[in-house]
Amino acid sequence: MQIEIQAPWLQVRTVMTAGIVFLFTQVGAGMAAYAQSAMYHDELTALSLGSFTTAEQSARDGRYGVAEAEIVRIWPDNEDGVWLYQEQAFMGDSPDDVDLAMKDRPYFARVTHSVEVEPGVVRRSVHKLKDPVAAAGGWKKETPLSGLSPDDLEESECSIMVMRIAENYWRSESEKCPNAHRGAAYALSLGITTSEGYANWDRGFTAEGEHVWGPATGGYIFKRKDDTHDD
Description:
By secondary structure, the protein is an alpha+beta fold. 22% of the residues lie in helices and 37% in strands.
């Protein structure tokens, strides 16, 4: 007759080994998910940076003028997300009427702060500058807005959710953002970002939902200038 003896210490060691294997499996899976999440946010950041123009759209459709946008990363050492600075200038009613001097008179200057809230979903808060003149033309510098910090920004009144729908394709939608332009009570923004550029559709509405400013039939299409993105 053969007698098997199961030693208590062996049972304990087996349980401990299984627990350690499970722990490292979970940690490894978590690290992989975190790395993938960071890659998604990096993808959106890379797609967002550069120089953009609506000249091509304006040439096709006279309802849209020529606007140019410059978007650069700022404060890269900050570990609380990704900070971007954006300036936009209206250059003329058509490609034939472009006034290059308008580049130094932007109608839009904002800082956005992006945080990935889950893999492929980024929340962007939009901030005005307390002193826009201090940042004007900052996109031209080697270290944009290095003399400023988040303390130089107004509190965000609006956030935008940006969602990854495919590789190098992101869709964005804002909440109702306070806005008083032309009698509006709030503004809505829809957008699409790809490696070729981005489309942005901003519109203002009264409290009753009446559309009072912004294109009625679709947004502006900002195409990336050829020398501002490496695939």
